[in-house]
């Protein structure tokens, strides 16, 4: 579930969208968003969350602490 994009920091560079193994990232309005129902924290696909790894802006793809951690 739990990564989210901080909209106020996202520059709409699009880099994260294609890397998500679950197609959880999409453009919405003036920013990119992560569908919490699709994000699995990249568990089983990659060692690190790919959106965090590629995002050029620090602290923009972050854990959404309001949601429970993904459990495979
Ligand atoms: S952590 Fe992985 S599964 Fe979740 S949105 Fe980022 S790239 Fe997609
Ligand atoms: S990689 Fe970061 S800055 Fe680029 S679209 Fe995704 S969240 Fe926004």
Automatic annotation (TrEMBL):
Record InterPro entries: 4Fe4S_Fe-S-bd, 4Fe4S_Fe_S_CS
A GO molecular function held by the record: 4 iron, 4 sulfur cluster binding
Stretches assigned to the 4Fe-4S ferredoxin-type domain: 1-30
Cofactor(s) listed in the protein's UniProt record: [4Fe-4S] cluster
Pfam families named among the record's database cross-references: Fer4_10
UniProt keyword annotations, A-Z: 4Fe-4S, Electron transport, Iron, Iron-sulfur, Metal-binding, Transport
4Fe-4S among keywords: yes
Protein name: Ferredoxin
Highest classification ranks of the organism: Bacteria, Pseudomonadati, Pseudomonadota, Alphaproteobacteria, Sphingomonadales
């Amino acid at each position: 579930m739990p990564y989210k994009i901080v909209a106020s920091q996202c520059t709409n560079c699009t880099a994260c969208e294609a890397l998500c193994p679950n197609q959880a990232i999409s453009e919405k309005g003036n920013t990119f968003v992560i569908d919490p129902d699709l994000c699995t924290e990249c568990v089983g696909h990659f060692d690190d969350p790919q959106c965090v790894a590629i995002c050029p802006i620090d602290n923009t793809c972050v854990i959404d602490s309001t949601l429970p951690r993904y459990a495979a």
